[in-house]
Amino acid sequence: MKQLNKNHRFTKTPPSIPFGTGKPVFLIALILTLFGGDIRSAAAENSASPPPFEAGEKLTYSLGWQFITVGYATTEVLADEEINGRKVRRFRMTARTGAVADRIFKVRDTLTSLTEYDVCRSLRFSKIQCEGKTKRNESLEFDWETLTVHYHEALKGKRVSTPILEKTLDPLSAFYFVRLQLFDIDSVIRGPLTDGKRCKMAEIRVTAREQIKVNGKKYDTFRLVPDLKDVGGVFEKSKDAEMTIWVTSDHRHIPVKMTSKVIVGNFVAELMPD
Fold first, then answer.
1. 197 inside domain
2. Which of 10, 60, 66, 180 is 20 to 30 A from 167, comparing alpha carbons?
3. Considering the domain boundaries, does residue 12 fall inside one?
4. Of 175 and 211, which is predicted with more confidence?
C-alpha cells in the first residue's frame, strides 16, 4: 500500500487508510475499485482486436443477500462527447433496492464519469446518493496541471482538494479501465484511485481461470481477488472478509459474478440475461 506525501511522491511505509463505505447492497459497486495501471493493455498489444465496450452497452446485475434479491445495478456506456476538439468517454451507473428492500433501507444511487477516450485518467465524476436517510450530491473535478482533484458536496457545501497521481481514476471509470487490460494468472494489478477525499493504490490478484454458470449460462472466466485491507465500512468490521469477482476471459472482460463474505452475511451480484 502506498500513499501520497505533500510533494505527490510515494512513501514507503504509509499507515492504513480506510477507503469507501462498503455498503452491502452495493456489492456491484465494489468492483469499481479494481483496475491496473501496471498491467498490459489488450488494445495496445493488438490494435486489430475489437474494443471491449462501445457506446450503447448496458449491463444489469441482480444484488442478493442470503439468497434474497435485494436490488439491481446497471452500468452504461453513454454517447461520446467532445472537449476542446478531442473525444472523451462517458459512463453511468445506477443502483437501487427492490420493493421489499425499500421498506427496510431504500437506495437510489446514480454515478457518472467523464474520462479520456482511452480511459487512462478521469476528467469529471459525480455521485447522487440516496441511501436511507443519507443524502449526498458529490462531484469531482480533476486538474491534471496541478495533479489535484477538487471534491464538492453540494448539499452541505463541503469542499476538499486532494493531491493525486498521474493516471488516477474515479471509482466508476476504473470499472471500464480494468476491461481494457490483459490478464495473467498470479499477476498482481495495482493502480491509483480517488474518491476526492483521499488517493490510494488499489490492488487485485488474478488467481485462476475457470468455468462458471450464472443464471443458466456458462462463462469462461478469470477469477479476481481484491485486497480488502484498506476498504472501510462493513469490510473493516469483518475479521475474515472476502470478495471474489469473475470476469469473462474474452476481450470484453465483462464482470459476470461477484461474491462477498462479511460480518452481516453473504452477498452476491450476478449478470442478468439480455
1. yes
2. 60
3. no
4. 211
